[in-house]
Sequence to fold (558 residues):
Amino acid sequence: MFKRSVRKGNYAYTVTRVKAKKSHLLKEEDYDKMIQMSVPEISRYISEAGYQKEMTDLAGKFSGIALVEHATYQNMANVFKSILGASQGELAIMVAAYLEKWDIWNLKVILRGKSYGVDASGIKEDLVPAGKVDEASLDKLISLDSVDDVLNEYSKVGKVTFPADVISEYKETGNAGVIEDFLDKFHYQRLLDSISPYTQPTKIFLDYIRKEIDVVNLRTIMKLKGEGIYGEQVMKYYIPGGMQIDSKFAQVLANAETVAAASGDMSRLEVYEDYIKPVMDSDNVTNKAVVTSIKKYQEDQAKKMAHMYPLSVLPVIDFMVHKETEVRNIRIVARGVDGGLSRETIKGLLVI
Amino acid sequence: MGAHDVTPNRSVLLQLKSKIKLTQGGHKVLKMKRDGLIIEFFEVLEKAKQMRAGVSSDYESAMEKINIATTVKGEIAVKSAAYALKADPQVKLSSKSIMGMMVPKVEADRIHTKIIDKGYGVITTSSYIEEAAMAFEKLLDTIVRAAEVETTMKKLLDEIEKTKRRVNALEFKIIPELKESERFVKFSLEEMERENTTRLKHLKKE
Fold:
């Protein structure tokens, strides 16, 4: 599926389409206005900002805040599919590999729903078909009875081979987390393989993904440290291929018993000085605060590559990152307003 | 049975005396038990107040965290993570004695599950969702402990009420009735004694 192609991508066409779409994305002032609105007003506002079709399509099924959430996800899925459909050659391979995370998201939703006993329509409602796997294949996965059948079918559809040790650990413990973690690692591995760093833009994209892997690894280490898990057990969740955190360094970070103990080693990281250190220096150091600041670094990295090499994969990825952020921000505003969160809290959660 | 419905003889009088002694002893013990239970009740009441405040604050914190998790990650992600949960919290029930009264002892077992055993992936599950899950685990733990204290408090109240009724019944009904019976038997015996003396005097004259 993601074999390296010698065929060059149709960058000019795809980037032009993407740029047109990017001009329609919501701006900071739109969020400022939305924060002052009620949920029905937000629904109307986003309908006028490009979400009309999905809001109308789903209005019969959902209402209020659920309609906003499902319609924005559906819109994102439609946009990503149109980009994937429009791109060709190596560009299509990279976009598909990048969007595979949504296939994995959907598989996780199906597996979790199946193990809990949610009916097919309930599972289908929660899917975000923004990846490469089409809706017919997703429907087939939902219709299967057991988790084993779902995994077998997905291994054909997604061209994934689930290792025997992962399957046996899942069967032994009944903990689907092992499958989910394998899929996340597999996604990054395949994404790295899909990028041929023979041009400067693809090299920048590769570096971006490698930095993202660093961020994911650092976040995982922090999360586990918060639970008092450190050492060899943490390395089970390590994703290889990062830029700064290789397995040796990951081991060093993993061995520190607390976040504070890992602080000295973390100072070697690019993310440390501007993002982690201010949190560590503050009075209230929590794992979540560190994890949130790492997330901010990841988003700033995406912003950095946005204006480099206009005819490359970078504007396409940049748009997809921004679209995901837009959907996230709309949901944060709508849910925040609905849940009675203060305007300051909502603003603090937004990524602009 | 009325105070006068007894056969007035010496054996009954002895029985009554012993009953009165026993009842007065029982009355004293029950009064002590009632006072002890009341002291215990106030201690448990204080604990229950703290537990209720704890449940209330833990609930608020858990709701705030789930609200933020739903806001940031969306309902779909939160719902999906909840479906994945494999945790099976257990509650151990046993009993302990407070002044002879059995009250439940509830111990929460396996309420907190480590992230690696929750049933969802560690790598991409949001820390907002994980934090909300932990807040609800804490709430469940507090609720279980509060259930123990609340049940103990209710049982103590019932027992105090029961003991109070017994003390009052002994103090105002049983002991006075027994004393009245004793007085009646004593009086009857004295009367019989006088009758006998008179009868003997008459026989001597004849």
Notes: Chain B has one domain: 23-193. Residues 39 and 63 of chain B are 36 Å apart (CA to CA). The mean pLDDT of chain B is 90. The helical segments of chain B are 10-84, 127-205.
